[in-house]
């Protein structure tokens, strides 16, 4: 590729560098650096998160996020993911 030098002028993330070195469209689904992405929240999970937030937000002396995480129907979400989703909602 004679125009690859132009790509070197701009910052790249790990996925772009991998594709530049291995060939474009070389990343398959679930492979390489992109596989570490967080699974999206389903509407059911968002609904449960909202209900748990309204249930535990008024509790005095207790960590709201810890209480929500203990009662989430799908385990495996980190504290950061829960907080980020609450802020987004």
Helices and strands, in order, run as: HHHHH
Radius of gyration: 20 Å
The description of the largest β-sheet is: none
- Which structural class matches the secondary elements? mainly alpha
> What portion of the residues fall into strands of 2 or more residues?
under 5%
C-alpha geometry: elongated
Q: What is the total domain count?
A: 1
**In total, how many beta strands?**
0
Regions with pLDDT < 50 over 5+ consecutive residues? none
Estimate the mean pLDDT confidence: 80
Task: Please bin the fraction of helical residues.
Answer: 40-55%
Distance between the termini: 44 Å
Record the SSE blueprint.
Elements: H1 4-7, H2 14-22, H3 43-56, H4 64-71, H5 79-88
């Amino acid at each position: 590729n004679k125009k690859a030098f132009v790509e070197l002028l701009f910052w790249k993330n790990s996925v772009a560098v991998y594709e530049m070195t291995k060939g474009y469209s070389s990343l398959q689904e679930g492979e390489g650096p992109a596989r570490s992405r967080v699974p999206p929240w389903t509407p059911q999970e968002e609904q449960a998160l909202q209900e748990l937030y309204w249930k535990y937000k008024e509790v005095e002396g207790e960590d709201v996020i810890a209480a929500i995480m203990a009662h989430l129907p799908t385990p495996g979400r980190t504290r950061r993911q829960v907080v980020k989703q609450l802020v987004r909602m």
